[in-house]
Amino acid sequence: MNSKSVPVIAERLTKTFRVAHRSAGFMGGVRAIFRPTWEYKPVVRGVSLSVQPGELVALLGPNGAGKSTTIKMLTGIVAPTTGSVRLCGLDPHRNREENARNIGAVFGQRSQLWWDLPARDSLVMLRDIFEVPAGEYRERLRQFDDMLELSRFWDTRVRHLSLGQRVRCDLAAALLHDPAVLFLDEPTIGMDVLVKEQVREFLRHQVAEDGKAVLLTTHDMKEVEHLAERIILINDGEEMFEGGVAALRSRFGATWKVHVTLSDAVGHPRLAHARIVAREGARVTFGPRPEASAPLGHALKEIINAYPVSDVSTEEDSLEDIMRTYLGGAAAARQSASGGSRMAAR
Amino acid sequence: MAGGTALRRSVYRLRLSWKLTSLNVRARLEYRVEFALGILAGILWQASVMVFATVLISRFPGLGGWSSGGVLLIASIRLLSHAVYGVLFANVNRLHAIVQEGKLEAFLLRPLPVYRQVVLHQFHINTFGDLAVAVTLFSLALRRLALEWTPFKIVFLCAAVVGGALIEAAVQTALSCAALRSPTATADWTGWLDHTLSTFGNYPLAILPGAVSGLLTFVLPVAFIAYLPAAVLTGTYEGTLVPREIALASPCAGVVLFLAARRLWNWNMRRYEGIGG
Ligand SMILES: Nc1ncnc2c1ncn2[C@@H]1O[C@H](COP(=O)(O)OP(=O)(O)OP(=O)(O)O)[C@@H](O)[C@H]1O
Ligand SMILES: [Mg+2]
Fold first, then answer.
1. Which of A23, B145, B169, B212 would staple B208 via disulfide (CB 3.0–4.6 Å)?
2. For B72-109, how does the pLDDT look when each residue is reduced to its tens digit (9 = 90+)?
3. DSSP state of A185
4. CA-to-CA distance for B144 and B81, rounded, in angstroms?
5. What are the φ and ψ backbone dihedral angles of A86, each rounded to 5 degrees?
6. Nearest Cα residue to A176 out of A198, A217, A143
7. Which helix (H) or strand (E) holds A225?
8. β-sheet bridge partners, residue A90
9. Residue A247 and residue A235: Cα distance in Å, rounded?
10. In angstroms, what separates the C-alpha of A112 from chain B's closest C-alpha?
11. Which pLDDT band holds residue B39 (cuts at 50, 70, 90)?
């Protein structure tokens, strides 16, 4: 596939910020003016990713992992320190204006609308800026309104909109010019359950029906489970994982349980994917074999084939559980690593 | 054909700028009281400038080889160019606020030049008050001076006013680059610049010690805004630190400096690092 047909390609992106180092106290402040010492802070360290048309990829990671910084490099807001980005074949930083027509972006924390005016005025202005033909504009606005119920509040000044209302207007604003790529940085922050569902439905439609390539960051794992085909997990600016939800499960040792009620007493044939972890009369609980954590689906099939089962229920780690385990482990590893280096320095 | 498209693009650009401006005027009108108070404060300020100027003319017979009408001419050219600067570039020295509010990042997501979006970002009605006062003072100066107007002088005057506006825009643009590189940069020095220009820009620099006058000619090019153009219009060349030919070319200084400042600005814009978060 050539680079034009893949909407988003980033290769070995890095970003290092230079920050002025200021020692404490008055003299520290004075010294910082005359002889600033710079600290180099690597924030993104070799992230590669791609997003295909009609695909929604979730960029996950803890606070400060470098998700927003990555999105800023992909949208052309800041230049990468090293590495390359191609968006619909363009370098988003070099060809910023041209690239702007191909992308839409929503930053949940910040609005791109005119704060003091009704949201609709911003939409009209953006229509003119992006030169959207009047017919298309009307058609798209009607569609957005159908799905996001914008007309209930788009005559309100943006400053008076609730967070969830404002982000919905921002979503409409980002998609008004029908970009091929959509970047969403924590779009559902502060939304209630119903609105979240509405927005998810809207995004699913954008991806499945309109073939948009979407890159999403969020801390809401439910959202990821509902929307994302693929996950990219970064921590401390480094890419830790890339793949589907199922692969993430097996990679990070996610566990499952199968509870069955046996209809007949039988012996216990050895299974390839599961082992008994508890039993109480006719109720038996299976878990993965420690040496190979098989996907739940395989194990379930095997169990049902081998046993006379009258009732089955399953239990699986949620993505949230997996992330919690993973992040907890990563934090512990970091702590022991820095402890180790301190020991070495002594 | 290519000419036709180019023309269409410029018409489109102008219409878009106009739409953005009217949108911003409407945004300002949302705060009616503030808007009205702003105009009132503007009128009071302008009135005080007028009173000061009238006192200046009636009390002083002249200054550094300049008649009082000549001094008024310098002051009014300075104010005219400052007013033109204000109408077109008033937002440049507010760049730090635009950056800190995260608006610059929204600008970067639109298919328009960032500098243009900065310049059009807010509309300041008071700049028209500045313009009105400047025009009034200018006509007062003309009445006192009884200059002979030739087509050359009229064209030169217009060029000088635009050039002066561009000099101010150039200096403010260059200073505003700091806001692109460090989000904590404040606008303190743009206030300092305003002050320097209104302190020294309105008088014949010949009255100042040579070193200061040199500084204000060759380092911070205040002389090129109004003093040298007024010297050309009145033929008062004694005490200027540059030859007559340079004084005649003074409107070009603004163009050159502004183009240089814009390059510097773009260079810094390419190195914008974001405001975190
Ligand atoms: N302009 C900047 N200058 C210096 N440091 C920065 C800048 N922008 C971001 N950082 C730092 O880079 C790191 C990553 O920030 P980033 O905003 O990309 O994280 P994130 O993954 O989006 O986190 P969150 O989940 O909290 O939004 C942070 O430590 C932040 O302090
Ligand atoms: Mg972030």
1. B212
2. 899 899 999 999 999 999 999 899 999 999 999 999 99
3. E
4. 20
5. -130, 125
6. A143
7. helix A221-227
8. A87
9. 18
10. 5
11. confident
Q: Please name the residue that has the structure tokens 């090129």.
A: B224
Provide the residue type at A112 as one letter. Answer: Q
Q: Assess contact for A117 and A148: CB atoms under 8 A.
A: no
CA dihedral B251, B257, B258, B262 (to 10 degrees): 170
- State which residues of chain A have pLDDT below 50: 1, 339-346
Domain boundaries, chain B: 31-270
Say how far apart CA A83 and CA A70 lie, in whole Å: 12
Give the tokens for residue B122.
């807010």
- A170 dihedral zone (left: phi>0; alpha: psi -120 to 50; beta): alpha
- Determine the Cα angle at A42 with ends B277 and A216, to 5°: 45
Per-residue pLDDT of B214-260, as tens digits, reads 888 888 899 999 999 999 999 888 878 888 888 899 999 999 999 99
Structure tokens at A99: 């690239």
Cβ <8 Å between A79 and B270:
yes
The label of the residue with tokens 């240089």 reads B260
Cross-chain residue pair B106–A130, CB shorter than 8 Å: no
A268: closest CA of chain B, how far (Å): 56
pLDDT category at B183 given cuts 50, 70, 90 is low
Three-state DSSP at A12 gives strand
Of the candidates A82, A73, A102, the one whose C-alpha atom is nearest the C-alpha of residue A90 is A102
Q: Which atom of ligand 1 is nearest to the CA of A71?
A: 18
Those residues whose C-beta lies under 8 Å from the C-beta of residue B191, and which sit 6 or more positions away, are: none
Residue type, A249: R
- Could you say which ligand is closest to the alpha carbon of residue A20? 1
DSSP string, B231-262: HHHHT--TT-SS-HHHHHTHHHHHHHHHHHHH
* Token pair belonging to A305: 């084939």
DSSP 8-state assignment for residue B94:
G
Q: Which residues line ligand 1 (CB under 6 A)?
A: A 17, 19, 41, 43, 61, 63-69; B 273-277
Q: Which atom of ligand 1 is nearest to the CA of B276?
A: 8
Distance from C-alpha of A57 to C-alpha of A241, rounded to nearest angstrom = 12
3-state secondary structure of A248: helix
Query: How many other C-beta atoms are found inside a 10 Å radius of the C-beta of residue B134?
Result: 24
For the record, the structure tokens of A116 come out as 């003091």
Task: Give the pairing of strands A213-217 and A56-60.
Answer: parallel
Half-sphere exposure for B196 (CA within 13 Å, toward CB): 19
